[in-house]
Amino acid sequence: MAAHAPTASRRRWGSTVAGLLVLAVMLFPLYWMLNTALQPDSDLLQVDPVPTGLDLSGFSKALGDQGGHLLTSLVVSFGAVAICLAVSAPAAYGLARFGLRGSRTIVFGTLITQMVPGIVIANALYNSYVDLGLVNSYLGLMLADASLGIPFSIVLMRSFMVSIPGEVVEAAEIDGAGPVRVFLRVVLPMSRNALITSGLFAFLFAWSDFMFALTLNTTDDVKPVTLGIYQYIGAHVGDWGAVMAASVLSAVPAAVLLVLAQKYIAAGITGGSVK
Amino acid sequence: MTTSTVTAPASAKTPRKAAAPDPDRARRRRRLAQWGFVAPAVAFMLLFFGYPLVRNVVMSFQHYTPKTFFTGEAPFNGTDNWASVFQDVLFGKALWHTLVFTAGSLLGQFCAGLALAVFFNRRFPLGGVLRSLILLPWLVPMVVSGIVWRRILDQDTGVLNTFLDTFGLGGNTPWLTSPDMALLSVILVNIWIGIPFNMVILYGGLQEIPKELYEAASLDGASAWRTFRSVTLPMLKPVITVVLVLGFMSTVKILDLILALTDGGPADATQTLGTLTYQNSFVELDFGAGAVVGNVLILISAVFAVFYLRANRTEGK
Fold first, then answer.
1. CA B158 to CA B167: how far, in whole Å?
2. Which residue of A58, B5, B136, B305 sits 20 to 30 Å from the alpha carbon of B55, by its own alpha carbon?
3. Inter-chain contact A120–B294, Cβ cutoff 8 Å?
């Protein structure tokens, strides 16, 4: 198979065309979401393939109805990220470095937690939350959402911190730094990438959470946008333009992260699962 | 002070006599500080994963009613919950739907993901950009994806039927409204959701395979298919196991997607163990029955995990 240069290059561009087609099929639903959002009056009609004008009334309605829920999602997600990192970063370091008895069991247990179905957790958690007065509270939802990211973060950061050279830590210890100081001043700055990746994923998990939002809230006090949109279709089946506009808004963080932090996302998906 | 930490081999170096208690004490204090790093995470995981597991088992033997949350009373009722759940036709249906849904989703996601991973493993212009853009569906909240698909699959005004209609291909398919079609539709949507994740992990695995192996295969004159079967697949096996196990864990407990697409209907045609747990507990407020179904779900996951761990161990040796 002696491929001449022109044929080889043509074949490479052929792959690009095929890749574009695959991408078009995969991203079509998201295009359609945006397209429908821009045609708010097409509820019971067929939606045109391309928006004929720039009708943003769907978006303004969605912002009016769901703006508060978007804000709730942001607050809850950032809270969950803070809890998740505060709990899992020290643990990852402890498991990577101290050689504590039981470390292996803890790491194994961390992996096993991924096996526990969320709805089973919610089933028990709801009853405890009722007893503790955490139903319909920001703190309750933040804690539950943090649990989605903690096992992942521990595994990811631990596998990174294991590779920090022992000499670096020992040098700091010789200078008289205690374990907390070493962790804060030496280990954390060196683990910047792993921290960012963990934080990003903790955010995405919390932002996407629907199940805890659905089960741990009985009133409208703490309603993230995922729950807001779900209840929206229950109440407004005829108002697809606004529903889709709200969906577009809820997908914005994902799109922004993918553009700005693509390197970390790819690292997280492979690192968190294969290690 | 007596030494309770002599088990550590390092203790041979330090003087064990009472004359020098300080290094020992310092060491113990250091151990304590070290545990301080790990303890919050262990406590958190025990509370949010360990405790719910135990509580669910207990709950499955308790009688919950809508009144329970006012009175706080959930008396034990033996195996009543178990008996009533197992006698319910819906449970058998949900179990079957869960198995079909999981097997169908995994098969579709994995094959498509592998095909795309192999495709993107070749170098071509814009390959990297296209590959990362395909991740987008995976990053959108699953409920939101479900709702978008609900609009696309609408029988009368959805774009899929409009599209099929222009080609005269049965543009009136009741994707989500017919009990015969709904489960298949839900599986297809879930395959769409899972492809990016499968692709990224398998792509990562493909990148790790040494290029020399492919050079050797091509020197031997192996065909593309032969190379794939004899080089790619065996080298990829550990990654394939990981993808399938993680896929199984996240698929078997599905809830968000089905609630967004069909709410378990029509006529319970898409009811799975996950949605049935939700319905029992949070719609009918019969947490005892919900706990029973939840325990079955855990049991299935656990059996699978044991097989996985055993397979892993024999492979490691």
1. 15
2. B305
3. yes
Nearest to B109 by CA among B205, B240, B302: B240
Residue B41: which of A126, A130, A150 has the nearest Cβ? A150
Measured between alpha carbons, how far is B155 from B170 in angstroms, rounded to an integer?
A: 11
Q: From chain A, pick out residues whose CB is under 8 angstroms from the CB of B219.
A: none
Q: Hey, where are the domains in chain A?
A: 38-42+54-274
Cis peptide before B40 (omega within 30 of 0): no
Which of B49, B162, B256 lies nearest to residue A210, judging by beta carbons?
B256
Q: Give pLDDT, residue A120.
A: 92
Matching CATH number, B89-316, of 1.10.3720.10, 3.40.50.720, 3.30.1360.40, 3.40.50.1110: 1.10.3720.10
Q: Which residue reads 């990016």 in tokens? A: B196
Distance CA B37, CA B3 (A): 24
**Is A22 in CB contact (< 8 Å) with chain B?**
yes
Asked whether the beta carbons of residue B55 and residue A109 sit closer than 8 angstroms, the reply is no
What is the mean pLDDT of the segment spanning A129-134?
91
Q: Which residues of A touch B129 (CB under 8 A)?
A: none
What integer best gives the mean pLDDT of chain A?
A: 86
| Assigned superfamily of A38-42+54-274 | MetI-like (1.10.3720.10)
Whether the pLDDT of residue A11 is over 80: the answer is no
Across the interface, whether the CB atoms of B253 and A119 are under 8 A apart is answered yes
Give the chain B residue nearest A108 (alpha carbons): B309
> What is the predicted pLDDT for the residue at A5?
56
- Comparing CB atoms, the residue among B59, B132, B305 nearest residue A262 is B132
- What's the whole-model pTM score? 0.88
**CA torsion angle A118 A124 A128 A131 (round to 10):** 130
Q: H-helix or E-strand containing A245?
A: helix A240-260
A235 pLDDT band (50/70/90 cuts)? low
Q: Tell me which of A6-15, A193-202, B159-168 is least confident.
A: A6-15
Can you tell me the distance from the alpha carbon of A42 to that of A53, in angstroms, rounded to the nearest whole number? Answer: 13
CB contact under 8 A, A123 and B59: yes
Domain boundaries, chain B: 9-59, 89-316
Determine the pLDDT at residue B298. Answer: 92
Tell me the nearest-neighbour CA distance from A175 into chain B, angstroms: 17
Average pLDDT of the residues in B142-157: 90
What is the chain B residue with the closest CA to A215?
A: B282
**Residue A121 at interface with chain B, using a CB cutoff of 8 Å:** yes
